[in-house]
Amino acid sequence: MLKKSRSRNGGGGGNNRSSSGGVVVLLIVVVVVVTVVITVVVVTVVAVVVVVAVVEVIVIVVINVAVQVVATFTIYSDL
């Protein structure tokens, strides 16, 4: 029983040490959170750039098709 109580006290000491270790854990959590935030921002920026590029391509294609349609209608109306 005494040995067990001593081990429990030792565990208590470990808990007291974990208070300083808690600072390390907090630092790790902060680093992880910052990393996640940076990752999310980068992914969002990349996604926006990709979407803008795709929209530009779609707009260019639509404009080209519209020009061709107008050109064909103009040709047929001339005929």
UniProtKB/TrEMBL annotation:
Keywords: Membrane, Transmembrane, Transmembrane helix
Top-rank taxon, per record: Eukaryota
Residue stretches spanning the membrane: 21-51, 57-76
Keyword Transmembrane helix: yes
Entry keyword Transmembrane: yes
Region (Disordered): 1-20
Protein name: ABC transmembrane type-1 domain-containing protein
Organism: Elysia marginata
